[in-house]
């Protein structure tokens, strides 16, 4: 009797971890271009995920985020502007005090704060069913409202957050991988996609490692698709909300990785060429 493959509890963070998992699944020397059929990003298997050649740096402390995400001057500019944006400061006070704010104080953050409170309440009532149960639509509305409130009033912000469930398709040699987004940020001037969005109703530890594999698939599809519908190499950004948890994720890639995944270069991906997230 064939032994059932043991499911991993996490995704590889180093090449040696990837190599161990790839050998276990029999794909160490394989290529995604040889697959005749591929699952969608939301249904991706561990075997297919390993063929994407991705490594995650999961433990990235918030204090190190600006540096590790390579946000440059944008981080300081955003921080300084939000420090003087009174509705945002009033919004932060409501989180500290867990109180219901007056609409005149919180302004554009009134709706996203109410939606966030709803997410938290439903998350604390896991037995809720039917109309009073937490689902991805509620979380998605909460996230998009929050991101819009943060960005809408900035005088130099010329882009729009949208809940449009756009599809990105990574075309490989023999098959394709389709990924459905929960929303994205696109420039109002060039229509270039700048950030993609993924949400889950529950917290991340409830659906790991699947969520890591799905988000990696979405980032690969966005980078392989390329601009303007996909992401540019220097802006492989994904924002996600899992229940009441917010995450910012960035993919770092080499031109060689993208060229190989687009089947423009026939060489194999070496351990130094992996996509790092």
Automatic annotation (TrEMBL):
Organism per entry: Penicillium cf. viridicatum
Descriptive protein name: Uncharacterized protein
């Amino acid at each position: 009797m064939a032994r059932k493959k043991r499911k991993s509890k996490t995704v590889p963070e180093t090449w040696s971890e990837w190599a161990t998992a790839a050998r276990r699944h029999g794909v160490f020397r394989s290529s995604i271009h040889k697959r005749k059929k591929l699952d969608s990003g939301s249904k991706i298997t561990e075997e297919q995920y390993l063929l994407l050649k991705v490594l995650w740096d999961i433990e990235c402390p918030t204090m190190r985020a600006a540096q590790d995400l390579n946000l440059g001057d944008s981080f300081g500019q955003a921080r300084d502007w939000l420090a003087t944006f009174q509705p945002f400061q009033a919004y932060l006070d409501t989180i500290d005090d867990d109180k219901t704010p007056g609409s005149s104080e919180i302004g554009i953050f009134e709706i996203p704060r109410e939606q966030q409170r709803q997410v938290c309440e439903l998350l604390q009532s896991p037995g809720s069913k039917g109309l009073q149960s937490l689902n991805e639509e509620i979380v998605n509305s909460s996230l998009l409202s929050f991101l819009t409130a943060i960005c809408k009033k900035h005088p130099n912000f010329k882009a729009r957050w949208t809940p449009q469930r756009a599809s990105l398709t990574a075309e490989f040699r023999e098959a394709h991988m389709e990924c459905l987004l929960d929303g994205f940020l696109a420039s109002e001037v060039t229509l270039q996609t700048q950030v993609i969005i993924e949400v889950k109703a529950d917290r991340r530890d409830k659906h790991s490692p699947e969520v890591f594999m799905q988000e990696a698939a979405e980032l690969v599809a966005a980078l392989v698709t390329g601009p303007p519908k996909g992401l540019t190499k220097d802006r492989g950004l994904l924002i996600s909300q899992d229940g009441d948890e917010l995450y910012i994720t960035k993919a770092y890639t080499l031109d060689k990785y993208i060229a190989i995944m687009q089947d423009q270069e026939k060489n194999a991906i070496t351990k130094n060429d992996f996509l790092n997230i």
